[in-house]
Amino acid sequence: MEGKVVVVNLVLVVFVFGVGSGFEFHQQQVLIPREKTCPVAEDILPCVCTVSEELLDLRLDCSSVQNEAQLRSVFQASFPDTDFFELVIDQDPADPNTNLMVMKQDTLGNVSFEHVRILGTKLVTVEAYAFSNSYQTLIHLDLTNNNIQSFPFASLPRYVSLQTFLIEANDVASLHHIISISLQVLSVSFNPLSTLEVSTLTGSPALTEVYLGYADLMTLDPGHFTHLANLTTLDLDSNTITVLEYQAIVTPSNTISYLNLNSNELTFVRHDAISGLSSDATLTLRNNALTTLEEASWLHVFQQLYPDGVIDLSGNPLVCGCDLAWIMLDPQDRYRPLITDTTRCGVDGPILIFLDQAFFEQQCQP
C-alpha cells in the first residue's frame, strides 16, 4: 500500500422528505492517514527507528553512528516508508569513537525528513544536496555545536517549507546571501563571522527571530534589517560593537519586542540608530561602556518604548549628570519608569530611577 493516505469510500444514506420520499445513497471519499512502518531493526543498526503511538510519525535516532560510511550503510537498507518525521544525531564532541565529519549527497539515501537535528558531532562539511530528498518536507534544521566550516547556503531556497535553521556554535566564518521565503527563525550565534554583509538577510522577508550573538561582529552597517517587516527578536549579545551608527538597526515597522545588545563595547549610540521597537519591547544593553544618555541620541529610543517597554542599562559606567535631565524632569514622567531598577550610576552607584529630582531641578535647568 503506497502513499501517505488511505482513501475510504463512505456510503451515506439520506432520507428525503416530500413527494416521492425515500432514501438516497451518496458516496463520499475520506482521506485517512496511513499507518507508518519502521525498517527491520537489525538492518539499520546502530540507528533506532520508533513510530508514534498513532502510528503516523517515524523517528530515526542515529546518535550511535561512528562515521559517514556507517551512516550511509544504514540508509542502504530497505525502508518500507521513506517519509520520516525526524532524524536525530546527538553526540558528545569529546567522544573519540565518533567521527562523523561530512554529510554527502547520498548519505541519507532516498529518505526525507521534516525535522533534522545533528548536534555535538565532528561534522565539518555539509555538501550540496546532502538533504536534497527533504527539499519539500524539511521544516526544522538544527546543526548546533558541530565543527561546520562549509554549508551550502545557496541551496536554502530549495527548502520550500523550512521555518527554523540553527547553525550556531560552529566554525562558519562568513554568511552568504540567505534566501528563503519561508524561513522564520535563524541562529548563527557562536560563529566567527566578524562581518555581516548588508544583503545577507534581505532575501528572507519572513524572518521573525534572528540570533547573531557571540559572532565577533565589530560593526553594523545600515540596511541589514530594513526588509524584515516581521522581525520580533534580534539578539546581538557579546559582540564587539563600539558604536551604533545611524540606522544600524531599522525595521519597516515597530515589530521588535526583544533587542539584545548586552556585553558589546558600546560607547555611543547615534541619533536614529535604532528604529522599529514596539511600545512594549525589551531593550537590553547590559555590560557596555555607555557613560551618558544624551537626549539627541536617546529620545527616539525612549519614545518607541513608551509606555510599556523596558530598557536595561545595568553594568554601564553612567555618570548620571545633566545628560539625564530630559528624563528626570519630564513633566509627564514618561521615560524614567522605562529604565530597570538594576540600572545604576557608575556600576555600583545609586539606582538611576531613584535619583533625587531636586538635583536636576537645581543644577540642570537651562
UniProtKB/TrEMBL annotation:
Keywords: Leucine-rich repeat, Repeat, Signal. PROSITE patterns: LRR (PS51450). It comes from the Eukaryota. SUPFAM superfamilies: L domain-like (SSF52058). Residues 1-22 form the signal peptide. Pfam families: LRR_8. InterPro entries: Leu-rich_rpt, LRR_dom_sf. This is Oplophorus-luciferin 2-monooxygenase non-catalytic subunit. The lineage of its organism: Eukaryota, Metazoa, Ecdysozoa, Arthropoda, Crustacea.
